[in-house]
Amino acid sequence: MFYKRLLCTQTTAVRHHLHPNQWPIKQVTKSNFSKELEELKTHICSSDFVAVSLQKTGGCSVPWQRILPFDTADTAYLKAKTAAERFQILQFAVCPFSIKDSKLIAHPYNFHLFPRDELKVGLPSYSFSCQSSYLTSMAKQGFDFNECIYNGISYLSRAQETATKVQIGNLSHNSYMVQSSLVHSVADSVFMERIKSRVKSWINACKTSNKTEDALISSLRKLILGSELHGSRPCLNIDVCSERQIQLALETLKEFVDVVPLRVPVKGGGMQAVRVVLTSSKEDKILFENELQNNEEEQNKRVRGFREVIDLISASQKPILAHNSLNDFAFIYSKFLTSLPPTMDDFRTPLRLVFPHIIDVNHLMKEIGPFEKINNIPAAISYLKNRFFAPVDMEIPNQGEANINNIHGNNVLKICQLFVKLCTILKISPEVSEGDGIQLSPSLQCHANKFTPCSNSSEEPIDEDVEIWTGNNRRVSINNLVFMWGFEGGISANKLKGLLHDSHEVFSQEYDIRMVDKTCAVVVFWNPGFSELFLNTMDSERVISDKMKDLISEGLRATGYETYKKVCEKSGLWRSDLAECLDEALEEETEVFLEAKSREEQSLIYWNNDEMINLDEL
Amino acid sequence: MTKQTLVRALTKFQTLTRSLCTSAATSDAALKNVTKSNFEPVLAELRRVVRESDFVSIDLEMTGLTSAPWRECFEFDRPDIQYLKVKDSAEKFAVVQFGVCPFRWDQLNNSFVAHPHNFYIFPRQEIQGDGLSYEFLCQTSSMEFLAKYQFDFNACFYEGISYLSRSQEEEALRRLDSVYKDELVDPSSNVREFADTELVRMADILYAERMKNKISDWRAGLSRDRNGGSDFQESSVDMNQNFQTTFFKLRPALAVNGLTSRQLRLIKLVMNLLPFSIFLPDVTEKHFKDLAYVHVTCEPSGLRPLLVYTDSIADRDMLMREVKDCRRKEEEMKIKAAVGFRHVLDLLSSERKLIVGHNCFLDLAHIYRKFFGPLPLTAEEFVSAVQKYFPYIIDTKVMLNSNDVLLRIMKRGSTSLSKAFRLLCSQLPATLTSSGLPNEPRVKVEVQVDDQRFSNWNSGAKHEAGYDAFMTGSIFAKACCHIGIDFNPDVPTVDLLHEEKLLKYVNHLYLSWVNENIIDLKTGKIVAESLGSTNIKRQNLKILSPNMVLLWGLTSNLRAKEFRDCLLKVYGTGSVTSIYHLDDTAAFVQFSKAEFVSKFLELKDNLERVNDPISILHPLSKLLEAGCVRAAGYEIYKEICSSPISELFFTDQVEAIGLKLKTRLELAIEIKRQEKYKINSLHFCEDRKDTDPEINATGTHSSCHFPGDELVDSLFPVEAQMSK
């Protein structure tokens, strides 16, 4: 790593040297969404990378729920998952960009989102949480909440779209092939025959009724035959009561050349009908089918909303840049794809199918300053500015109408900038070759898809070693960590260290304490095996030192990392204090233990019980 | 579009879109909107108006009503469940607008004078580090509803008035106490932490050395001053612009400006190492005993560090105490300032005025939660707590539905706020009223905004809290008139609190409108019969919770009818009274007799366990869908409702709670086991002579985890079967 300590005053002529507040970023709401979407599509196609940045209504409610250095990939994921399920995205900035001759060409867009229930089916989200501090800081930046809530773009996730296809009550043209391998029973044949004769007589009636006929008679005929009009074409509804009957009906209808079958779903699922539409000729049939196709696409656009953008990015397979990618992609996954799986491994694989290359600038930063606490973008930029000479020439073309004085979404441009700077400094080639799929340069590929700064590789099984705090690279196995609580609230780590001194032999050797929140501390034993030793003595009634006895009688409790993992898994029961959560988790462990014991006694009584009940029933 | 943005641009920070539009259109004054910027003067004026008022009407706008579809109020909810649902709503959602409208009887004008106020409030965190999470839920549909009525979210989030509840304030003051107590006990605690670790870099050592000299020089200069009074000038010139001699509390001091926090820490360290230096409040016990280091709050940059010269140790201690007290006062002031909008509620409470709301039980729960303290666990405790703060509350919805005269006016239809206002308070032309209906009792309501009076004021928008409060109050005034309370110029004052005709309505609220359950705030009891009206709008379904079974894990292909058919096959016709769907995944079955409940649960258990032809062919097997469907008694429903979690679907909710649903047998065994265990653990404790917290926790836990009566009656079938 080279440290080039040049003077930080940047004297190079930067062509578009605008203040970040003056970067022209296109703001997109419901009204200009369709138009900008088309434009964005071409920009994504022509760019090498896509940077994304999200503005959410909250991050974590209390200190321990944020991702901490001692979190494993799994617990970090669980925390990100909880946040993603709870909070909402209000702004989604997307910036396709390319690097040409060390010049950054960017096309920034900032989409305003609101989970409006456009289809009146209670989707995409029934409710969401807000943290007032997040809203206040957005207000400080001049965010227009009215614009967002009145005119934000809505969306449905992929899973929601599939689930609502039926609910929306949209007529769907039967595009899938009818299985002809159905084995017909007698009842089936009767059913099919009935449909056949009914449709036949209906078609005949329709064709004859074209001739001049008495209005009364024609309307009576309609009534009797159940004939209606679908648009300008006559149609007939056949009631069906199962999926099988639909299949049978469709099979029967194949015999008729001029009819187009449609499935009519009932709102909320349940009984359906098959609507048979009669077309006047072959050309008319094609015309009608195209019409249906267009309608469906139109409807889809309305349903997907902002998700079109996600689908575009995904389809392009372009490498995506983000800052703190785990959090952002947990949000993207849960809002636009489907509900989040329970573990990190189950999350990584499907995400990779949708977005094959995700590059976290925060991870790249760690390559430069692994011990520094640089967790936000401005800090990272100023850190680099003070240490390295890596000017970035940025060009934002074709953004004529964009409001100049709009800072919303400028984070996404900062991510682009940061990335280019980091590539220069780390000598990473930002080349992207488009051969058989998108290929990153090897130097960049090795940084792709790393979600937590501490996980060394995405391929390897997640190692169970964690860092204890930022600024220290000493890694330790999670087995050496002990969580401790039940002391006076708001105590400092040093004070706690003083309390523990001399209380137990393990505290005579090297160990460290950090406060996780006001109520709970994490202790690191550098000697392997000490944590176990300590936990065992806490559990047993063996006579320990008086000091420890005092501490325990005052309520001191301790547990290993497993309990913490368990707490992270049960996000529904998270309390504001970690101590309380750990207490509850331990209690449950005891309960499970009790249950297991009680099960031994049950089997006997079960037997009796079975017999009695069965006798009663007979 | 352009017009819209123009208006928005105009109103972005201070003014409100809505009021601007309406005030431009009519000559009437706009509704009095109150935000952070004008709160203080409005509050002062409101104090006077409320004091003079005869009653105060209120209305709230929230960010949502129910945190999950199944948390809506249903007809089969028992009153205790209804309260739990209200409680959940008040705990999760935020109040964004608060309408307060005092009404005063004006004898001279023979009319009521209303003062509608529309407060924008927002739970902004004003005190840092209080450890509370300022988080609230938004229900998407409610936000859309607010947006539909042009609610100004910017006014709320930018300029909304924040607040602290009484318990939050107490907590903050208590914390302040402990912080300052700690510092007195262990003043050096802050210093020690960094003292061991510093001064390792060469640059730091050099800088520290320079500072040491500088401070010594300055001190020397001071003492020379004092003795000779000659070189004061010189010594201050000696310092560069970062150091200026000033005075602090009548003592000479050195102001340190424009240094980085690292440099400041080094200076502190130097003072620590030097003889005769003192830091304040980070006090060092060592040396340099006549210098104190203090932070003084000053505009605009916040804290300003000072080195203060003191005469003696006693003087230094005095100074320190003084500074500490000062800082404490400042902190206290901050807390007092953070009370914010609660002052309005404190005012309403201390004036003991009659509070009028429209269907206001949820409003009261919000008020209690946001401005007083955490909500109690039961409705009885809640209403008695509310009565302490608000002894007189009238609900206009209760009035409209319990009085025959009023019901006739309402045409026996819905009693929504806007409809009631239209029917009761629409201003008919004077000629028509005087000639047409001479007997019709009338009362005039005038509106005063700032210093202007309007007799026909209509510049509020529907679903704006201030205007809704005004409508509620007007409805109340008219309703009073209709039930025979006489407002006329001969009466100097109206005494609504002791008005006999109102007595039966006072402190009666709808616990839930769906069930028309009226709760008496005085007793906490549900009022059995309606309040004396002949209105029997619908025969209330008899809900018998012991006869009900809760089923969840249902899939959408089973409808209520099939359900009923299956159950009727097993238990005979007439055994199932009704089936209620909670949502798509859960339902209640009400049996005609309570014993069917236990029979059903046992049978279900068996069918799932035994895999013989009989159980597969059993009609219930179809219902149970291979063990996916779970069932329990009504009490479990209560437990689920009291959980803080809110999953979208009921079945997921049960899963998330992790409620381990035990079969009745397992339960019974467990109780026995746990009793045994409890006894054991008691023995154990006695042996050890000191209580082991862990064992105690599990011992008591078992009894609180399951509702009591569930436990008791689950013992019963086991014993019954044993004896058979």
TrEMBL record, chain A:
Cofactor(s) needed: a divalent metal cation
Gene3D superfamilies in the record: Ribonuclease H-like superfamily/Ribonuclease H (3.30.420.10)
SUPFAM superfamilies tied to this protein: Ribonuclease H-like
Annotated family: Belongs to the CAF1 family.
The protein, known as: Uncharacterized protein
Automatic annotation (TrEMBL), chain B:
Cofactor(s) of this protein: a divalent metal cation
Domain of life: Eukaryota
SUPFAM superfamilies referenced in this protein's UniProt entry, alphabetically: Ribonuclease H-like (SSF53098)
InterPro entries per record: CAF1_poly(A)_ribonucleases, RNase_CAF1, RNaseH-like_sf, RNaseH_sf
Residues in coiled coil: none
Family named by the database record: Belongs to the CAF1 family.
Name the UniProt record assigns to this protein: Uncharacterized protein
Organism the protein comes from: Penstemon davidsonii
